[in-house]
TrEMBL record:
Annotated source species: Trichomonas vaginalis (strain ATCC PRA-98 / G3)
UniProt-recorded name of the protein: DNA-directed DNA polymerase
EC number: 2.7.7.7
Keyword Metal-binding: no
Family: Belongs to the DNA polymerase type-B family.
Cross-referenced SUPFAM superfamilies: DNA/RNA polymerases (SSF56672), Ribonuclease H-like (SSF53098)
């Protein structure tokens, strides 16, 4: 993903390592047995030979030294990926990922810098207005016809899951602008809301 020069390919016989195997004090593994749990035996053998003191003899290796090598590889690659990601974000968006706790908070800051603030008519909400509007948030839902499971022995069924609904909606309708308006007494009814539900529906982007 980041075009990293990761070095030796990671190969680890996860299912070979077990509590029973690790119970032996000498931490010795059988190479021929471990190879049954991996696809790339050649790389596994090369890794064993490249780790100092890992190969014990022709058919045995040090379990602890190999797992230490694997964990160090994992952490090193993770670090290199993070550094590359941080540098890319700094270069493209002038944002430092150290200042944010999630990819969502980075995206929100980017929107603030390039959309919200330049717009001049978008506002942060707090206290009661924010609490009220947050009640409208609902998680994603997957629904089928008649709410029944679909099964067919004669034809294949394609699971069509629509994606990018929020970006599509923003591209078509943009977003709500201005400050919240206080509802008048005559507006506080379901009938009024249903009558005026689509009054402000924006059909084309402005």
């Amino acid at each position: 993903m980041f075009n990293l020069q990761t070095g030796p390919k990671e190969v680890f016989p996860y299912n070979y390592y077990s509590s029973v195997l690790l119970a032996n004090d000498n931490r010795t593994g059988v190479i021929s047995e471990a190879c049954k749990f991996i696809r790339d035996a050649d790389t596994f053998m090369k890794n064993i030979d490249s780790i100092k003191g890992c190969r014990i003899d022709e058919n045995h290796f040090d379990l602890e030294k190999y797992s230490t090598f694997y964990c160090k590889q994992d952490v090193r690659i993770l670090r290199e990926g993070f550094v590359k990601f941080r540098n890319d974000i700094l270069k493209e968006f002038d944002l430092n990922v150290y200042d944010y706790v999630s990819i969502c908070s980075i995206a929100n800051k980017l929107f603030e810098n390039r959309v919200y603030f330049p717009n001049g008519n978008l506002y942060d909400l707090s206290n009661k207005p924010r609490e009220f509007i947050s009640r409208c948030i609902q998680g994603g839902r997957c629904m089928l016809s008649d709410n029944m499971k679909q099964k067919s022995k004669k034809k294949l069924i394609a699971d069509f899951d629509a994606v990018s609904l929020y970006p599509s909606a923003i591209a078509r309708l943009y977003t709500l602008e201005g400050i919240p308006k206080v509802m008048k007494k005559e507006m506080l009814s379901t009938e009024y809301l249903m009558r005026h539900l689509f009054d402000d529906d924006q059909k084309e982007p402005i």
